[in-house]
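Let's study today's protein:

:::
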Amino acid sequence: MMRQTGVALITVLVVVAIISGIASSAILEQQFAIRRTGNLLHGDQGNLYLFALETWGREVLIADAQESAASDHLDEDWSKVIPAVVVEGGSVKGSIDDQQGLFNLNSLVDKAGKVSEVAMQQFRCLLTEHAGSTISPDHIVDAARDWMDPDQDVEADGAEDLDYLSRDPGYRSAGQHFVTPSELLLIDGMSYEAWQNIRPYVTAYAVLKEDASY
């Protein structure tokens, strides 16, 4: 009788342990689900705040174009920073930066693949003046040109897919215009120090006209 009681007690303890484990796992999974849902909601909320800022910027620029299309200067409304606005979970603030006053990397090669010698020389001068001694301006200019053009013909001092695929991890040249200026960090020969030095002077946006001034 005592042996049967002991076996029954052990069985009960095993069952309780199993149920406790299942319950703990279910509670943990529920906590993860709640956290995931919260992260998704916060992400959506952040996107809505971002959309609101973009809408504000668009309206400010439209108003500026209507009121003073002949000129732009830093005393206009578009250049003013929005003070931080307290929102649920944090605060939001924004500003508009004049990207047209920076060197557009995409001006090096137009959509037809035609190289702008003027832009190439401007970029070379910018690198020489601001990048520092850790890079070769001629190499970076040719490598940036190769990065954008659709072919695999290496310029005099440039780099194409074969140069990048040999890295770990390997990758290919873009074969298109820059999406963001930070792509320069992927260019053969570019150092992080040089990138930090020229970062305030470069941008990347679409070239709408082949004969656009640079």
Observations:
- The mean pLDDT is 83.
- Residues 2-67 form the longest helix (66 residues).
- The chain has two domains: 6-94, 103-203.
